[in-house]
Structure formats: structure tokens, C-alpha cells
Amino acid sequence: MNGIHINWTKPFLNKTKAPYSVEDFELLTTILSALKWREKNGPITMITDSAGQEFYKNAGITKIWDGVENLLDDVDVNPDVFWAAGKIFALSRQEAPIAMIDTDFIVWEKIDPDELSDVTVIHFEDLYPDVYPPKSYFHMKDYSFAADFDWNLKACNTAFCIIKNNKLLKYYTEQSIEFMRHTDEKNDRLKYMVFAEQRLLPMCAKKLGMSAGSFSDLDSLFSDKETRFTHTWGMKQQMRDNNALRYDFCRRCINRIIHEYPHMYETIKNIECLKQYF
After folding, report:
1. Which helix (H) or strand (E) holds 248?
2. How confident is the model at residue 14 (pLDDT cuts 50, 70, 90)?
3. Residue whose C-alpha is closest to residue 50's, from 3, 7, 101, 102
4. pLDDT tens, position by position, 208-232
5. Pairing mode, if any, of strands 105-107 and 98-101?
6. Which stretches does DSSP call E strand in 57-118?
């Protein structure tokens, strides 16, 4: 099954006003994620923009993917609010079945598409009002939500998401992009983005009469029960705050990459931010 990594750099560049970069632990999970997907499940492409393409080329790691495509230079929504919009725009250029995998997410085993729903995500999320507010919260311009959207459905966490149905893929991405384009919100960096990415997906699936399922749940993912997946999202700030934890994590990643993919040794050794681990 075809997979995609996605990296839209505009939110980073707007926020930092500095040259684009990726933290060492994120770079290592990206490498592991791409190589493991290719080993177990099939081709994977990095969808990015000019800055991202240049970064990966300079880092010397473009070979970890089957291709690196610059498709996100023309994303036309506010990057300060819709910081993950690149995922939706990248998805809109794909054909189902397609697997969308965050660069901090690793799939360790083969996925059987025949066992999946029309859309399958890593887990569902409860509708906590401070994250997923009611419809009345959103301030829109020249836009109306579909009358038959079900606002009681749990949201979908799309750190790992497989969409098998092309009609659903096109409808979801069209609806999400239209939502993002029709608000003048400039301050909310959470609720608008997670609606466009995570809550709208199951609403679109139900409206089209299609099935939505999950691979796992939060309890399993934060325990030793789940061995098929690793998601480092919740650990990133801890590594930024704890140098010993960061060093240990990076060393373990490097050791695993070199052990399982020895052809990557010289590549990793020559990446500037990773030299301290050799």
C-alpha cells in the first residue's frame, strides 16, 4: 500500500523566522518510519514544499523514501492557525487506498488492507469541549456546514490514517479545505485545526454511508500492550527538557537503524545534528 509522509514547513518558518530545521529525535523517527514502512508495507513518498525538499536533500536522506515531491508551496490557508493543513492538501493530491503516516509515528508490522474500514485511524478521541467545541463556536464567512453532519461522533486521531475509499478521500479533503479557507480566525491554534483534520473525517464518512474504524486506543498505546506502533508525540517535550532522555532515545534509534538497515550508517553519521551520538 502506498504511504505518504507530509511536511509543510511554512508554520515553522512563520513562527521562528529562522532557517528550516528538524530536531535530532524527529529526524531519526522520520528515518525509521520511512524505512520500516517500505520494509513491511510498500512505497512511501515525502510530500513537502521547497524548504522541506531542500532540507532533506542537504541532510542526504532523500533515499529513505521512494520519492520526495514538492506539492505544498501553494497551500493557501493561514499557517498560524492551520499548522497541519499541509496534511489535508497533500492528501487531496492522492488516490485511495493511501496511508498517511506522521513522521513521528512508526508502523512496525504489516497492515492487511482487507481487514480495514473505509477509513481506519490510529484511535478515536472523546469530544472534550476545550478541544472539540460545538458548531456555534466557529466563526465562518460564506460557509455552511452540511446539515446532516453528525456532531456527536468521536474525532479521529490521524497520526496514522488509511483511507481506502476514493470518494471519501476526495469529499473529506474538499470539505476540510473549504472550511479552512472560509474563516478569518487568526488566534485559535487548536480547535479550528483539529476540527478540519480530525473531527470532520468521521462526519464525512458517516454522511457518505461509509465505515470508520481504529487500529488501537489510548490506553493500549500508552502501555506495553501495543507493539505494532510507536508514536513519540507525547515524549517530545520531555526530550527537549531532559538531555539524558534525549541522548538515550537518539542512541537507541541510531543503533536500531544501523542494525536493521546497515546501508544507512554513513548517511546518519554524516548528518550534522547526529554526529554527537557517534
Report:
1. helix 243-260
2. very high
3. 7
4. 999 999 999 988 887 778 899 999 9
5. unpaired
6. 67-70, 98-101, 105-107
User: What is the C-alpha to C-alpha distance for residues 141 and 249, in angstroms, rounded to an integer?
Assistant: 46
Strands 155-163 and 119-125, by their bridges, are antiparallel
151: Cβ–Cβ under 8 A, 6 or more apart, which residues?
134, 135, 203
Q: How many residues does the chain have?
A: 278
List the beta bridge partners of residue 223.
Answer: none
Q: Which of 250, 134, 262, 265 lies closest to 191 in space, CA to CA?
A: 134
Question: What DSSP character marks residue 272?
Answer: G
Query: Residue 139, Cβ neighbours under 10 Å: how many?
Result: 12
Q: Give the side-chain half-sphere CA count within 13 A for 7.
A: 24
d(CA 228, CA 200): 26
Q: Give the Cα separation of 82 and 193 in Å (integer).
A: 5
**Predicted structure pTM score:** 0.96
Q: Phi first, then psi: give them for residue 70, nearest 5 degrees.
A: -95, 100
Q: Which residues contact 160 (CB under 8 A, 6 or more apart)?
A: 99, 100, 101, 102, 105, 107, 121, 122, 215, 229, 231
Identify the DSSP state of 79.
Answer: T
Q: Residue 146: which residues within 8 A CB-CB, separation 6 or more?
A: 175, 203, 207
Grid cell at residue 264: 544507512
3-state secondary structure of 33: helix
How are beta strands 212-214 and 155-163 bridged, if at all? unpaired
CA neighbours closer than 13 Å in the CB half-sphere of residue 257: 27
pLDDT value, residue 222: 78
CA distance 148 to 74: 31
C-alpha cell at 214: 481504529
> 252 is written with which cell numbers?
537507541
**Three cell numbers, residue 261:** 538497515
